Amino acid sequence: MLKPRDLGPGASTQTFLEAMRAGRMHLARFVLDAVDGAIVDCRSDRGRSPLMYAVLLKDPAWRLAFARLLLEHHAAVNLGDDAGRSALSLACERGYLEVIKLLVQFGADPDTVDARGWSPLMYASSEGRTAVVEWLLRAFRRFGQLRLERADRAGHTALQLAASGGHHGCVRALRSAGALLLIFPESPSSQAGDDHDGAASAASPPLRAARPVIDNNIPSSLQGLLM
């Protein structure tokens, strides 16, 4: 029989992860209690924490139960892995709405970005997770906690990612929330002129209208929604 003294830091983390994968809640609780919750933020493969593995479990009931267990033991909800991805980011990519709501309940930040500049909203949009996109917009947009025009390191917004993937539902949700797919042409170089004292001054360049971006990778059936 497994005893608390048998669980060193490495062994306890591995035992806990194996218990999660097998759906053995009693064993998982035993491990956490034996080490006084010390392993909740231990890093494993690719720098991922137990919470990150929990939100990726295939069984919906296990996913929710183990994520709640870890959060109630004060797991760091906004911790990032080696690529800067949080548990919320991973859950949004998979479309696991119930665990997304749980993470947010425990303080998950919906606008954090990873090493490539992607936010949870971007992952949901790129994968066509319409229900997740709609929920994030309803839950956070009115409080200014989602920046819809945020661009990743390649210059892509959530709307562009959704459109490029042909995800009509996500495009409609983002457009309804006010997301724009715009670029602003560069203004012409300002011309220096003389003021009435004879000193040179730079004239402010005129404002120019933005125009819609039409990406060749965006299906033609979606381009009308982006105008």
UniProtKB/TrEMBL annotation:
Mapped ANK repeat ranges: 46-82, 83-115
Keywords annotated in UniProt: ANK repeat, Repeat
Taxonomic superkingdom: Eukaryota
InterPro entries with a match to the protein in the record: Ankyrin_rpt (IPR002110), Ankyrin_rpt-contain_sf (IPR036770)
Entry-linked Pfam families: Ank, Ank_2
PANTHER family on file: ANKYRIN REPEAT CONTAINING (PTHR24173), ANKYRIN REPEAT DOMAIN-CONTAINING PROTEIN 16 (PTHR24173:SF74)
Name of the protein: Ankyrin repeat domain-containing protein 63
